[in-house]
Amino acid sequence: MSNVDTLVEGLPKLNLNIEPEGIDKFRLYKDLLKEWNEKINITAIKEDSEIDIKHFLDSLTIFRTDIIKDNAKIIDIGTGGGFPGIPIKIKNTSTEVVLLDSLNKRVKFLNEVIKQLNLKNIKAIHGRAEDFGIDKEYREQFDIAVSRAVAPLNILLEYSLPFVKKDGFFISMKGPQIYEEIEEADKALKILGGQVQEKYEVELPFSDITHVLLVIKKIKQTPTKYPRKAGKPKQKPL
Ligand SMILES: C[S@@+](CC[C@H](N)C(=O)[O-])C[C@H]1O[C@@H](n2cnc3c(N)ncnc32)[C@H](O)[C@@H]1O
Questions:
Q1: Cβ of residue 148 lying under 6 Å from some atom of ligand 1
Q2: Whether the CB of 89 sits within 6 Å of ligand 1
Q3: Ligand 1 pocket, 8 CB below 6 A?
Q4: 80 CA from centroid of ligand 1 (Å)
Q5: Which of 15, 30, 49, 226 sits at a 20 to 30 Å CA gap from 59?
Q6: Whole domain around residue 206: which residue ranges?
Q7: ipTM of the complex
Q8: Residues that bind S-adenosyl-L-methionine, according to the entry (predicted)?
Q9: What is the Å distance from ligand 1's center to 83 Cα?
Q10: Residue 25 lies in a domain
Q11: CATH number, domain containing residue 186
Q12: Is residue 163 assigned to a domain?
């Protein structure tokens, strides 16, 4: 079994607490991550303490925003190996979580994690954000969309904001380059109905890395012509 010692030591540094049952789930999650990573490419981060810091603790920094309320319905866009969606679900079991990724082999891994960790009220779906964003089962159905390491903000907003209900939030987990990205995303924000609400700078424990959690509030409905068809947001960002 993997150890999650660095995760356990890092939680108080983020003012977070996770019950022993949750810690056991992180341990099992790490076992599966390392096992599957031998067969399919999920993450370049392979060492125990690095997984704790750069995947688990980094994902959990999202709780510093106070946006994730009990029972919130959340979608993680481009979740990859489940970050930040699975740590969110382990920490707050009352949330309803949808994990979305365009790479099917990663979605298969996520389904195995959901099964083995016995997580409830969570599912992994395979496809592109541009396609699910026009599907009425998903469009404007979420209190919160989250995303880490998927695309520059002007592109990411077109992937994410269509999923968020009016008065809901999109939380983008970024590095310090976010400040330039915000300037470049001014037009996309206006078109898609978003407004910058807050920026939280968070120091990642046991590292010299500072990440920024950008909280965008959805202040009006997204026009039905967005998202444009798959590939278009990236080819021709707003
Ligand atoms: C660099 S990985 C980041 C994964 C994870 N969020 C993390 O922080 O570790 C980006 C992920 O986004 C997915 N992705 C990229 N564009 C997408 C799109 N348009 N719709 C859905 N998933 C997408 C990719 O398949 C990939 O798994």
A1: yes
A2: no
A3: no
A4: 5
A5: 226
A6: 68-235
A7: 0.99
A8: 78, 83, 129-130, 148
A9: 10
A10: no
A11: 3.40.50.150
A12: yes
d(CA 223, CA 202): 33
Instruction: Say if 9 falls within a structural domain.
Output: no
What is the count of structural domains for the chain? 1
- 146 CA distance to ligand 1 centroid (A)? 12
Q: Is residue 112 part of a domain?
A: yes
In the structure encoding, which two tokens stand for residue 33, read together?
């991550």
How far, in Å, from the CA of 147 to the mean position of ligand 1? 8
In this structure, which long-range contacts are made by residues 192-195, counting pairs with CB atoms below 8 Å and at least 24 apart in sequence? 192/157, 192/158, 192/161, 192/162, 192/222, 192/223, 192/226, 192/238, 193/161, 193/166, 193/218, 193/219, 193/220, 193/221, 193/222, 193/223, 194/157, 194/161, 194/170, 194/218, 194/219, 195/219
Residues in the annotated binding site for S-adenosyl-L-methionine:
78, 83, 129-130, 148
